[in-house]
Amino acid sequence: MGEWMDKWLPEMKRNDGQNSRQAPPASQLLSDEQGRKYYELTFKCLGCGGEFKARNYIFINGYIWNTGKAGYCPECSEKRSAKFERDEKEKADADLIEKRESWRESCGIPLKYRFKGFQHFEQSYQPKAFMMCQDYAQKFPIDNPQGYPSLVLYSDHTWGTGKTHLACSIAHHILSRWSGETGTCPVKFVSEPVLFESIRETYNFSFQEKEQLPSAKNIIDLCIRVPLLIIDDLGKEEVSDLRFVQRTLFSIFDGRYNAELPVVVTANLNDVGLRSHMGGNAGNEASFNRLFEMCKGEFVHMDGQSYRDKLARVK
Question: How far apart are CA 197 and CA 166, in angstroms?
Answer without folding.
Answer: 24
